[in-house]
Specification:
With about 250 residues, the chain is mainly alpha-helical. It has one domain (about 10-210). The protein contains 15 helices and no strands. It has helices spanning about 10-15, 20-35, 40-45, 45-50, 50-65, 70-90, 95-120, 125-140, 150-165, 170-180, 185-195, 200-205, 215-225, 230-235, 240-250. Helix 2 packs across helix 5 (about 50-65), helix 2 (about 20-35) packs antiparallel against helix 10 (about 170-180) and helix 7 runs antiparallel to helix 8 (about 125-140). The longest helix is centred in the N-terminal third of the chain and has 22 residues, at about 70-90. The radius of gyration is 17 Å and the shape is globular. It starts with 9 loop residues before the first helix and ends with a helix.
């Protein structure tokens, strides 16, 4: 049976560890809040009501596609397209094509950035492999103007960062909701993690300070994995309702 992503792919290694997926979620939460099209998710009311759950479901859905058989992955992607089409019909307007590309671009960037933060630098071929997987997702969604390789994607991503992001009332509200749903301590960990992952444009728009406590914590966390204390640390920072779901992400 054909797979959407080959078993030995670096993408499976990236998305097969709960630690990395959590950082992909953290970085995406920052950039997503700045996206000029975020009002589309405010339209349904689901994002402000449960921003952590909404973003976490997006990340876990992406992961499910990555580990699926080809036909099942296509069905899941088609279902995503169908859901968005329903929202468009209810609002009587089209979600901009660039907004779809932006989400794909976030997943590419934070897949690479999170793995490199927690594990090692990726090679050029491995980065191209990450790009290609999400290109296939976008292609199945019939998105237009997708770059054809990692090098072109980097150029287009930079354009996106310059033109598609802005700090708005939705940004401010989303971060308030993050804090409300995570609690002060976990929210602090979220912000400190985001500082190490986000591109310069996102960093500046959110007004982050230059120092991140996580730059000190992460080397200790890597050591904790060697002596099997990382699960204890994860239990400290994860909201109870997501602990089981995060543990299920750890398959490698």
């Amino acid at each position: 049976m054909a797979l959407f992503v080959e078993r030995n792919s670096i993408v499976r290694k990236i998305w097969g560890k709960a630690d990395t997926v959590m950082f992909i979620f953290a970085g995406s939460a920052a950039e997503f809040a700045l996206n000029k099209a975020v009002d589309w998710l405010y339209f349904t009311g689901k994002l402000p009501a449960d921003p952590i759950g909404r973003l976490f479901s997006t990340v876990t859905y992406s992961r499910a596609i990555i580990f699926s058989e080809l036909n099942k992955a296509y069905k899941s992607i088609d279902q995503i397209t169908s859901i968005h089409n329903a929202v468009e019909n209810n609002r009587n307007s089209k979600i901009p094509d660039w907004a779809y590309r932006d989400v794909l671009y976030m997943l590419i960037h934070y897949s690479i950035a999170s793995y490199e933060l927690l594990e090692r630098k990726l090679t050029g071929d491995e980065k191209q492999e990450v790009f290609h997987v999400f290109y296939e997702v976008g292609s199945r969604m019939h998105l237009k103007e997708l770059p054809l390789n990692y090098t072109d994607w980097k150029i287009d991503y930079e354009k996106h960062l310059q033109h598609d992001l802005a700090k708005s009332k939705y940004t401010v509200d989303l971060f308030k909701q993050y804090k409300k749903h995570l609690g002060a301590f976990r929210y602090y960990i979220l912000i400190e993690s985001q500082k190490l992952l986000v591109p310069k444009q996102v960093f500046n728009l959110l007004g982050f300070s230059n120092f991140s406590l996580m730059s000190v914590v992460i080397p200790a966390y890597k050591l904790s994995r060697l002596i099997k204390l990382n699960n204890v640390l994860k239990d400290l920072v994860l909201p109870k309702k997501y602990k089981r779901q995060v543990k299920e992400l750890d398959i490698i």
